[in-house]
């Protein structure tokens, strides 16, 4: 919702200011300029990206309209970890083997459908718990987790990075459109001043649209995806801290409390909120 509000503010304020100066909106409607800009941007995107990355970018765009990881998502994650740690402490480390081998069928994971939908997070938890079941010590586990998280961060940064680069190219494509418009204008020098003026205005619209789409549309989308990736990575970091804390011998509730401490303040549940959620699990 907020990205849509932002786009309305950007385009609305520009158009409103233009109209206040008695500008003619009809002059800004130049389909040919949009074809040049849009086609050049899409073409450069296809050249830049291998097919897998291209489809990843297309899948990531709708997430701009969705909210990031919420406080409820973090509470669900910590409640799930608490359930796993409690079962391990009570029934032994092998008791969770079936749960981590088939999380979609596990009663522990089924209680948290929002977590199950996050395949990266579920795979991260299960893979590292498998390592824990194998008896790998906490230091080696931490090294493995860091490697996996680095790979995840690099992969998550690919789509925002490419979108930002395409956005940076739009002013250049706008200049290309303007130059082509000037070339066309040169062929109309025998026409009346009104015709020449309209042709020059149409050429300048290309530069205007390139700059506007760069700084008012694609650039902010790339930044939004970067922030979203950073927020989502906190789920992995929280799971990492909780699992490592438990592997080092901490009690389930202490391990979950350690996981809570790494969260951003706007999505971090308070001590009482987490305690209430865990109390419900115990009940």
Describe the protein.
With 283 residues, the protein is mostly helical. It has one domain. Helices cover 80% and strands 0% of the residues. The chain contains 13 helices and no strands. The mean pLDDT is 89.
Protein traits:
single chain; 283 residues; mainly alpha; 13 helices; elongated
Number of domains: 1
Helical stretch tally: 13
Mean pLDDT: 89
Largest sheet: none
Structure summary, number of beta strands: 0
Helix content: over 70%
Beta-strand content estimate? under 5%
Secondary-structure element order, N to C:
HHHHHHHHHHHHH
Terminal residue distance: 38 Å
What class would the helix/strand composition place it in?
mainly alpha
Detail the poorly predicted runs: none
Radius of gyration: 26 Å
Based on Cα principal axes, name the global outline: elongated
How is the secondary structure organized here?
Layout: H1 2-20, H2 25-28, H3 31-48, H4 51-60, H5 71-91, H6 97-101, H7 107-110, H8 113-117, H9 119-133, H10 138-186, H11 193-247, H12 252-260, H13 271-282
Summed up:
This protein has helices at 2-20, 25-28, 31-48, 51-60, 71-91, 97-101, 107-110, 113-117, 119-133, 138-186, 193-247, 252-260, 271-282. By secondary structure, it is mainly alpha-helical.
């Amino acid at each position: 919702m907020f990205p849509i509000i932002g786009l309305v503010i950007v385009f609305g304020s520009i158009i409103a200011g233009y109209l206040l100066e008695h500008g003619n909106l009809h002059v800004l409607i130049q389909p040919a300029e949009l074809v040049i800009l849009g086609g050049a941007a899409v073409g450069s995107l296809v050249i830049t990206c291998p097919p897998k990355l291209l489809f990843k970018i297309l899948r990531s765009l709708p997430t701009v309209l969705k909210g990031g990881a919420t406080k409820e998502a973090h509470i669900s994650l910590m409640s799930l970890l608490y359930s796993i740690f409690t079962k391990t402490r009570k029934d032994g480390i092998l008791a969770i083997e079936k749960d981590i081998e088939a999380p979609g069928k596990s009663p522990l994971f089924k209680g948290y459908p929002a977590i199950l939908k996050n395949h990266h997070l579920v795979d991260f938890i299960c893979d590292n718990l498998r390592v824990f079941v194998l008896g790998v010590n906490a230091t080696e586990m931490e090294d493995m987790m860091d490697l996996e998280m680095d790979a995840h961060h690099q992969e998550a940064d690919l789509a925002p990075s490419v979108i930002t680069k395409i956005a940076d190219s739009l002013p250049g494509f706008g200049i290309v459109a303007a130059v082509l418009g000037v070339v066309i204008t040169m062929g109309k020098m025998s026409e009346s001043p009104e015709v020449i003026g309209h042709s020059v205005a149409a050429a300048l619209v290309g530069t205007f649209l390139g700059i506007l789409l760069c700084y008012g549309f694609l650039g902010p989308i790339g930044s939004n995806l970067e922030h979203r990736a950073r927020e989502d990575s906190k789920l992995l970091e929280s799971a990492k801290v909780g699992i490592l804390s438990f592997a080092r011998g901490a009690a389930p509730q202490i391990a979950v409390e350690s996981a809570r401490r790494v969260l951003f303040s706007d999505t971090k549940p308070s001590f009482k909120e987490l305690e209430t959620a865990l109390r419900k699990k115990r009940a």
